[in-house]
Amino acid sequence: MVRWRAGRVERVVRRWSGCVELDVALDRPIGDRSEVRALAYPALVGDPADGDRVLLTTGALERGLGTGGYAVVAALPERLPEPAGPASAGGHLVKARYTPLQAMVLGADEQDSPHHELLRDADDLAGLPVVVADLHSALPAVVAGVRSVCPDARVAYVMTDGGALPAWFSRTIDGLREASWLVGCVTVGQAFGGDLEAVTVHTGLLAARLVLQADVVVVAQGPGNLGTGTRWGFSGVAAGEAVNAAAVLGGRPVASLRVSQADARERHRGVSHHSLTAYGRVALAPADVVVPRLPGDFGDLVSRQAAVLAAPAGRHRLVEVATDGLLDVLRATPVRLSTMGRGLDEDAASFVAAAAAGVHAAHLLP
Asked: What is the reported pTM?
């Protein structure tokens, strides 16, 4: 299950918020590799420096997984970090529960939080637009779409736990925050490391509105995505549950379609079966399903596939959104756009569809 290696830090490559990237020389090679790229989260293991001994987990790296193509530092065995304070000072939410690196965090909604009174009886998003997406890669495109209509809109991100658990893994979050494109990130479920922590998607949405004072919220899993090629065995099923959460709290769910013109897998060409299952079978509340107006035969394919989600056969409202100018908007994003290893030029429809959802959400603002 867990594949271990030990080694020594050769060099610190770069840092971003909550994360350090390292080159590590291995004591015992992996195949013909004697050095690997590794990630460390200083809040969990301490801050590594050149020459430090490290214990690594290497399973995802050895398996060749895309997003997980790093070794991960599990400990600095010769320089363990000192406790930051008494155990009672850090909140009582445990995330990544009962794993060796379970994290104790202070939840925005728990009793010791300064926001507890604000959230204790909170029950209403008051029509807040909530854009739901399958993949983390949709996040910057959705925000770009919002800002193309309302440049001053306050956009928050609620990160679910279907992909990476630490928000620190995402350079996208760091870059969007640095550019003031996000007012904050709320990590929910087993995910952690956001500007705010919350127990559920529901309290995460309420915290985004009431604490971060967001005008628009984007809900999506963290980097990475688990799929098995079966109808139900994929982490994006949670997108349907996020629609339900937004609706039950009086928000305005906006469903962003996962679209691809370049994916080699038939089930993801046009509108992905992930979107059709999550919104068509899991979401029990109606949402605005944004259908991007794309040119040619591919645009016709997307429209036909999305039509099954519309009432009366489905339960949702289809909203067609023009995409003129969105490519220029997307080229101006402050972070790199990438989905399943493809950039904007390789799979423009993927990002345009997400941006169109952001455009629609912005038009819902008063």
From this structure: 0.94
C-alpha–C-alpha distance, residues 363 and 358, integer Å: 9
Dist. CA 255–CA 273, nearest whole Å: 14
- Domains of the chain with bracketed CATH: 4-75 (2.40.50.220), 116-363 (3.40.50)
Mind listing the pLDDT tens digit for each residue in 282-340?
999 999 999 999 999 999 999 999 999 997 778 999 999 999 999 999 999 999 999 98
Report the C-alpha gap between 8 and 52 in whole angstroms.
6
Q: What is the pLDDT of residues 242-287, one digit of tens each?
A: 999 999 999 999 999 999 988 878 778 889 999 999 999 999 999 9
Residue 89 predicted with pLDDT over 70: no
Token pair 């995460």 in the structure block, residue: 204
Nearest CA to 45 out of 116, 98, 97, 101 is that of: 101
- The b-or-e profile of 331-343 (16+ CB within 10 A means b, else e) is eebebebbbbebe
Could you read off the pLDDT of 126-140 as tens digits, one per residue?
999 999 999 999 999
205 Cβ contact list (under 8 Å, min separation 6): 125, 128, 130, 158, 217, 219, 245, 246, 249, 251
Cβ(132)–Cβ(159) below 8 Å: no
